[in-house]
Structure formats: structure tokens, C-alpha cells
Specification:
There is one protein chain. The protein is an alpha/beta fold and about 220 residues long. The chain has a single domain (about 5-215), classed as TIM Barrel (Alpha-Beta Barrel), CATH 3.20.20.70. It is built from nine helices and eight strands. The chain has helices spanning about 15-25, 45-60, 75-80, 90-95, 100-110, 155-170, 185-195, 200-205, 210-215; strands at about 5, 30-35, 65-70, 85-90, 115-120, 135-140, 175-180, 195-200. An eight-stranded parallel β-barrel has the order 1-2-3-4-5-6-7-8, surrounded by five helices. Helix 1 crosses helix 2 and helix 6 packs parallel to helix 7 (about 185-195). The longest helix has 15 residues, at about 155-170. The radius of gyration is 16 Å and the shape is globular. It binds D-xylitol-5-phosphate (DX5) and zinc ion. Zinc ion binds next to strand 2.
Length: about 220
């Protein structure tokens, strides 16, 4: 079954509570929290995302799918642990070395969350292969991380296919999440390529009827 994770990155503060409510009643599966530190990517969303994550954890029963686009992965895992996210995902481009990557995976498990490892469009799949047995999800970025509202880069879906083949051949049971430029047209292609969790931001947030938009994605 395809699951939908709604990115709240571009939700406006004035409409936040209503939008969160509409997303939940619209039958999304997770709230996707895009934490950007102003270093790993240009934007700094640390305060806004903390605020939204806290609010959502108070008013919603749905799990948080936290996506760290940050250099200091360890610091943010610590900070978010108290919110008990369903999933915490960090970038391989941030941790780089094996020991640090394995420590981050362990820390997330210690916090009781599922572990996601993310890979940017310019990074080869080989970089994450050694960790696939240790994580629950791979987040394949389908745009360059940094902002919402971009167009999906078609080549990234080739990476999704390659990953799907690899995990099937090796009997590895993990989720594949795609993030960036997912809308009614691209969702089908992403699922055909092997993704089973779709992050969607602008397409959902700007939809006139969120429930219909979620159903279209699914
Ligand atoms: C991009 C973020 C995405 C993004 C998704 O850096 O990780 O989660 O906000 O938004 P849309 O669906 O608008 O591309
Ligand atoms: Zn994201």
C-alpha cells in the first residue's frame, strides 16, 4: 500500500492549525517535517519546524516523519527524540564516514524511532548499500534538497528502480520514500519505480480539496 507523508514546510503560520487538521482528515499517513539548518542547505527552518512538530504532536494522532537536512545530525536526533517521531531520517552526505553513520542509526533506534537514510540526487546508491540492513527506510530525494515547490528530476526515479531491484534481489525489507515534486502526475511514476511512501508538499497544501488530492496520490 502506498502511504502519503505531507510536507508542512510551506504551510503558512496563519493557516497552520486548519491545514494540519485538513491533512489529517484528508487521510495522510504521516506529517513530514523538513528540518534545515542553514548549513547543509541554505535555508534555516529549525524554529518553524520545531514549532510545527510540537503543535502536530499535541493535536494529531499521526506519526512524525522527520527529515533532517542538517550537518549536525546527532544534535538534532537528540532534540527531536522527546517528540518520539515515527521516523527520523538523516542524509548520508552529512554523516559521510561509516562510524558516524552507524552511530546515527543507533541513536535513532535508541530514541525508539524507525531509521531513514536519505540520498541526494548527485549521490550514488553505492554510498548507502552498506547500511540497508540496518535501516527501515531509504528516502530518495527527487529534487535537490533545500526548498519546496521544485520539479521532480526524472533521473532520480532510475535510482529508485535500481534500489528497488537491489533490495528485492537481496531480500531486504525496507520502505522507499520519495521526496520532492510529487503530484498527481509524478506519483504514479514514483510508485511504478518502486516507491511506497510519497512525500508531497505544495501539491497537497495548495489543493482546494486536500482529501481528494490525497486520494489522487494514492
Ligand atoms: C525539499 C524537502 C521536501 C519538499 C517537498 O528539500 O525535503 O520535503 O518540501 O515539497 P514539494 O512536494 O513541494 O516538492
Ligand atoms: Zn523532505
Amino acid at each position: 500500500m502506498t502511504e502519503i507523508s505531507a510536507s508542512v514546510l510551506t504551510v503558512e503560520k496563519e493557516n497552520a492549525i486548519r491545514t494540519f487538521y485538513n491533512l489529517e482528515t484528508g487521510k495522510i499517513n504521516y506529517f513530514h517535517i523538513d528540518v534545515m539548518d542553514g548549513k547543509f542547505v541554505e535555508k534555516d527552518t529549525t524554529e518553524l519546524m520545531k514549532d510545527y512538530a510540537l503543535t502536530i504532536s499535541h493535536i494529531s494522532n499521526l506519526g512524525l516523519d522527520v527529515h533532517f537536512m542538517v550537518e549536525n545530525v546527532e544534535e538534532f536526533i537528540d532534540e527531536y527524540a522527546m517528540l518520539e517521531p515515527e521516523i527520523m531520517t538523516f542524509h548520508i552526505e552529512a554523516t559521510k564516514e561509516e562510524e558516524r553513520t552507524k552511530n546515527a542509526i543507533e541513536e535513532i533506534k535508541r530514541a525508539g524511532s524507525r531509521v531513514g537514510i536519505s540520498i541526494s540526487p548527485d549521490t550514488k546508491l553505492d554510498e548507502i548499500k552498506p547500511y540497508l540492513n540496518l535501516v527501515h527506510m531509504v528516502l530518495v530525494m527527487t529534487v535537490i534538497p533545500g526548498k519546496g515547490g521544485q520539479q521532480l528530476i526524472p533521473e532520480t526515479l532510475e535510482k529508485v528502480k535500481e534500489l528497488k531491484n537491489y533490495i528485492d534481489e537481496n531480500n531486504i525489507d525496507i520502505d522507499i520514500e520519495v521526496d520532492g515534486g510529487i503530484n498527481a502526475e509524478t506519483a504514479g511514476k514514483a510508485v511504478e519505480s518502486g516507491a511506497n511512501i510519497l512525500v508531497s508538499g505544495n501539491y497537497l497544501i495548495n489543493a482546494e480539496n486536500i482529501e481528494e488530492a490525497v486520494a489522487k496520490l494514492k
